[in-house]
Amino acid sequence: MSTANSAAGDAGPDTDDAIRAMLLLMPRLVGRAKRTQPPAELRSLAPRHLSMLSYLLFDGPMTVNELAARLAVAPTTVSLMVSDLSRAGVLERTEDDADRRRKIVSIAEARLPAIRDWLARGADAWRTALDPLTPGQRQTVIDTLLAYEKAVTEPTPDPER
Protein backbone atom coordinates (compact mmCIF):
# COMPACT_ATOMS: atom_id res chain seq x y z
CA MET A 1 0.00 0.00 0.00
CA SER A 2 1.81 3.05 -1.24
CA THR A 3 0.77 6.64 -1.82
CA ALA A 4 2.61 8.82 -4.32
CA ASN A 5 4.69 11.74 -3.11
CA SER A 6 2.86 15.06 -3.14
CA ALA A 7 5.25 16.59 -5.66
CA ALA A 8 7.31 14.83 -8.30
CA GLY A 9 10.91 14.44 -7.22
CA ASP A 10 10.30 14.95 -3.48
CA ALA A 11 12.83 13.07 -1.41
CA GLY A 12 11.44 11.18 1.52
CA PRO A 13 8.93 8.49 2.32
CA ASP A 14 5.59 8.03 0.63
CA THR A 15 2.51 8.68 2.78
CA ASP A 16 2.11 5.09 4.00
CA ASP A 17 5.78 4.81 4.97
CA ALA A 18 5.54 8.15 6.78
CA ILE A 19 2.43 6.94 8.63
CA ARG A 20 4.27 3.78 9.67
CA ALA A 21 7.23 5.82 10.91
CA MET A 22 4.95 8.14 12.91
CA LEU A 23 2.93 5.26 14.39
CA LEU A 24 6.20 3.79 15.66
CA LEU A 25 7.64 7.12 16.80
CA MET A 26 4.68 8.71 18.60
CA PRO A 27 4.35 6.14 21.42
CA ARG A 28 8.06 6.57 22.20
CA LEU A 29 7.70 10.37 22.28
CA VAL A 30 4.60 10.22 24.47
CA GLY A 31 6.26 7.71 26.79
CA ARG A 32 9.33 9.90 27.18
CA ALA A 33 7.19 12.97 27.81
CA LYS A 34 5.24 11.12 30.51
CA ARG A 35 8.49 10.05 32.18
CA THR A 36 9.77 13.64 32.33
CA GLN A 37 9.00 14.31 35.96
CA PRO A 38 8.62 17.83 37.27
CA PRO A 39 10.99 18.91 40.05
CA ALA A 40 10.06 17.71 43.54
CA GLU A 41 8.46 21.03 44.51
CA LEU A 42 6.14 20.79 41.48
CA ARG A 43 5.13 17.12 41.81
CA SER A 44 1.53 18.11 42.58
CA LEU A 45 1.16 19.45 39.03
CA ALA A 46 -0.77 17.45 36.46
CA PRO A 47 -0.09 17.28 32.71
CA ARG A 48 -3.03 19.64 32.12
CA HIS A 49 -1.07 22.37 33.91
CA LEU A 50 1.85 22.19 31.47
CA SER A 51 0.21 24.20 28.68
CA MET A 52 -1.00 26.92 31.03
CA LEU A 53 2.42 27.25 32.65
CA SER A 54 4.06 27.32 29.21
CA TYR A 55 1.86 30.22 28.10
CA LEU A 56 2.57 32.14 31.30
CA LEU A 57 6.30 31.46 31.10
CA PHE A 58 6.74 32.32 27.41
CA ASP A 59 4.08 35.04 27.01
CA GLY A 60 3.99 36.55 30.49
CA PRO A 61 1.13 37.32 32.86
CA MET A 62 -2.41 37.38 31.47
CA THR A 63 -6.05 37.24 32.51
CA VAL A 64 -8.10 34.09 33.01
CA ASN A 65 -10.06 34.88 29.84
CA GLU A 66 -6.85 35.26 27.81
CA LEU A 67 -5.57 31.94 29.15
CA ALA A 68 -8.91 30.26 28.40
CA ALA A 69 -8.83 31.52 24.81
CA ARG A 70 -5.30 30.24 24.26
CA LEU A 71 -6.03 26.89 25.89
CA ALA A 72 -9.36 26.59 24.03
CA VAL A 73 -11.27 25.81 27.23
CA ALA A 74 -13.95 27.59 29.23
CA PRO A 75 -12.87 30.43 31.54
CA THR A 76 -14.41 28.52 34.47
CA THR A 77 -12.04 25.61 33.78
CA VAL A 78 -9.03 27.93 33.80
CA SER A 79 -10.33 29.69 36.90
CA LEU A 80 -10.48 26.36 38.77
CA MET A 81 -6.96 25.46 37.64
CA VAL A 82 -5.67 28.89 38.65
CA SER A 83 -7.33 28.54 42.06
CA ASP A 84 -5.71 25.13 42.61
CA LEU A 85 -2.28 26.37 41.55
CA SER A 86 -2.62 29.58 43.56
CA ARG A 87 -3.35 27.56 46.72
CA ALA A 88 -0.27 25.46 45.95
CA GLY A 89 1.83 28.62 45.65
CA VAL A 90 2.60 28.04 41.95
CA LEU A 91 0.58 30.96 40.57
CA GLU A 92 -0.25 34.44 41.82
CA ARG A 93 -3.30 36.57 41.05
CA THR A 94 -3.01 40.34 41.17
CA GLU A 95 -5.41 43.14 40.34
CA ASP A 96 -5.20 44.67 36.88
CA ASP A 97 -4.20 48.33 37.35
CA ALA A 98 -6.38 49.32 34.39
CA ASP A 99 -9.47 47.44 35.64
CA ARG A 100 -9.52 46.45 39.32
CA ARG A 101 -12.24 43.85 38.65
CA ARG A 102 -9.88 41.80 36.48
CA LYS A 103 -7.19 39.56 37.88
CA ILE A 104 -3.84 39.03 36.21
CA VAL A 105 -2.39 35.53 36.56
CA SER A 106 1.37 34.99 36.73
CA ILE A 107 3.84 32.37 37.87
CA ALA A 108 4.87 32.89 41.50
CA GLU A 109 8.39 34.30 41.63
CA ALA A 110 9.55 31.55 44.02
CA ARG A 111 8.44 28.82 41.59
CA LEU A 112 9.69 30.47 38.39
CA PRO A 113 13.19 28.86 38.35
CA ALA A 114 11.79 25.34 38.84
CA ILE A 115 9.14 25.83 36.15
CA ARG A 116 11.66 27.36 33.77
CA ASP A 117 14.05 24.41 34.30
CA TRP A 118 11.24 21.86 33.92
CA LEU A 119 9.99 23.34 30.64
CA ALA A 120 13.51 24.04 29.33
CA ARG A 121 14.19 20.37 28.63
CA GLY A 122 11.36 20.21 26.13
CA ALA A 123 12.13 23.64 24.70
CA ASP A 124 15.79 22.69 24.20
CA ALA A 125 14.82 19.45 22.44
CA TRP A 126 12.44 21.34 20.11
CA ARG A 127 15.17 23.92 19.43
CA THR A 128 17.58 21.13 18.44
CA ALA A 129 14.97 19.61 16.13
CA LEU A 130 13.67 22.85 14.60
CA ASP A 131 16.81 25.02 14.30
CA PRO A 132 18.12 23.26 11.16
CA LEU A 133 14.80 23.79 9.36
CA THR A 134 13.76 26.78 7.30
CA PRO A 135 10.89 28.90 8.66
CA GLY A 136 8.62 27.29 6.04
CA GLN A 137 9.63 23.80 7.14
CA ARG A 138 9.04 24.71 10.79
CA GLN A 139 5.57 25.94 9.87
CA THR A 140 4.92 22.65 8.06
CA VAL A 141 5.86 20.71 11.22
CA ILE A 142 3.51 22.86 13.31
CA ASP A 143 0.69 22.64 10.76
CA THR A 144 1.11 18.87 10.49
CA LEU A 145 0.94 18.36 14.25
CA LEU A 146 -2.13 20.61 14.48
CA ALA A 147 -3.81 18.71 11.62
CA TYR A 148 -3.01 15.41 13.37
CA GLU A 149 -4.44 16.70 16.65
CA LYS A 150 -7.61 17.78 14.87
CA ALA A 151 -7.92 14.47 12.99
CA VAL A 152 -7.62 12.32 16.12
CA THR A 153 -10.19 14.37 18.02
CA GLU A 154 -12.82 14.25 15.27
CA PRO A 155 -14.88 11.12 14.67
CA THR A 156 -13.77 9.24 11.59
CA PRO A 157 -16.25 9.45 8.71
CA ASP A 158 -15.54 5.84 7.69
CA PRO A 159 -16.51 3.35 10.44
CA GLU A 160 -14.72 0.56 8.51
CA ARG A 161 -11.28 2.08 9.24
UniProtKB/TrEMBL annotation:
It holds the Pfam family MarR_2. It comes from the Bacteria. Residues 15-150 form the HTH marR-type domain. One of its GO terms (biological process) is response to stress. PROSITE patterns: HTH_MARR_2. One of its GO terms (molecular function) is DNA-binding transcription factor activity. This is Transcriptional regulator.
